[in-house]
Design goal:
The structure holds two protein chains of two kinds. Chain A is mostly helical. Chain A has one domain. Chain A is 47% helix and 9% strand. Chain A is built from three helices and three strands. Chain A has a three-stranded antiparallel β-sheet. Chain B has one domain: Phenylalanyl-trna Synthetase, Chain B, domain 3 (Phenylalanyl-tRNA Synthetase, Chain B, domain 3, 3-Layer(bba) Sandwich), CATH 3.50.40.10. Chain B has a four-stranded antiparallel β-sheet with strand order 1-3-10-4, covered by helices on one side. In chain B, a hairpin with a 3-residue loop joins strand 6 and strand 7. In chain B, helix 2 runs parallel beside helix 6 and helix 6 runs antiparallel to helix 7. The longest helix of chain B is centred in the last third of the chain and has 15 residues. Chain B starts with 6 loop residues before the first strand and ends with a helix. The chains are: A mainly alpha, B alpha+beta.
Amino acid sequence: MLLQQAPPVAPRTLPDERAARRTLLGQVARLEEELAQLFCSIWPRKGFTLGVAGRGGPRLLSLAELEELRDDLAACVAHARKALSDRTYSEEQYRRLIEEMLLDPAAYKWVRVANEDIGEPGCKHWHVRPRWSFIGMLMGWWRVVISSGCPLAA
Amino acid sequence: MIDLKLDEGWVEAELAGDFPELGLVHAPVDAKPRKTPREVKQRLRALADRYTGGKVIHMRQDAVPWAYRVFSRQVGIDPDTDRTPVERIALERLRHGGMESHNLVDDALTIAIAETGVPVFALDSDKVVGELGLRQARSGEELAGVRPLSVGQLVAADELRPVALLLGDEVAHDAGVTWGTRRMTLCALRVKGVPPISVEEALWMAAETLYT
């Protein structure tokens, strides 16, 4: 039996976007909160990009623009979280290195670790150097010298 | 004790649909602009001393500044480029090593914003026509003396024209406070996540400073 297909009916009312918009606005708020938390966790480390471009506001964004903004924020949060995770892993390795340097300086001759390497502000650094210069080098008297801080501004 | 009469401004339906808690609270103040008295300058200095780098960095996690950051983002502003008023003040404080005094009105607004995190601006009451509220800019409108507006930009407006861009730092020249102003209207923007008492406190603080 041949069934006749009914012609498509044009919708008489536009779908209400409000619920979708509210959901997206809520997601944007949560992602912005995560970004703020990440920003505070990252500080004072350098080399991170947390920027998500503006959309020419202040204005009401369309549904598509809100979706795009949400996606950009989500990508930015994911990227920043991964970068921070990588950085903190490397910082942990440097912290371990400092402990090992302190335990056995002779095994880490001339190794230098800066505060920046362990994610801390300031110019302090740990440097394995020989005691009494050449005499110490010849005698194998190595020690970890901890710098006193940043040089004075010129 | 100052007796402030707070009024809730209207909000355009489309705007209220997306942001049900958005509001413009305003209050008339019988004060004229004048030079900043010594006590207010001292207060600005004390306020500046409380701002440190760490505090500014963590400011974006505090409830009220965060709420305005979120609102900025939701309306298409990048809050790291176009800072919210409180972050703008905090950043200026770090750059200049203090809070510069300009005149009593600007200083009162700075104190109110920095203390509460709520954006506050002042208008000349005699130049405001009818009720104040929030709406989208219409075709051909401009922020007088400041810049033209594109259709849909979010503005604070009276019954005739836009008087300020939302979260902006400038007020239309034909509605702003001048040395000839005799009465002012203080306006504060309220967004989701900001308790009404913070908005009230911001207006109260600005008015109290103006009456110093």
